[in-house]
Design goal:
Blueprint: H1 2-6, E1 33-35, E2 39-47, E3 50-57, E4 63-68, E5 74-78, E6 97-102, E7 107-113
Antiparallel strand pairs: 1-4, 2-3, 3-7, 4-6, 5-7
Amino acid sequence: MHSAAESFRHPLAALHGTAPAATPLPDAAEGLSVAGEGVVLSSVRQREGQLEVRVVAQSPHPAAVRLALPGLRAAVRCDLLGRPVEQGEPSAVSGGAVTVPLRPWEIATFRLRR
């Protein structure tokens, strides 16, 4: 399976921008933060006005992932197609962050709403 996944990997393509050289850069801003021992961010995408985040617990032991996003109001666990699961109750959000337990080797998808 790993060799099949590697066949879809592409090198980074860096391109020149189209703005005039004197254009100022935007102010720095805080974005999504993902933290957890043995937890890896797999994908991020916009979906129906929300941020969909997929993480993988790469450990034979239970883990916890902390998802933080400025203005975060709700985090709902979804299936691999992005549909809320039956227990799709929003996880408790505090201070723009949520911590969610993961089973060993679990792939978990969340919809984050601001």
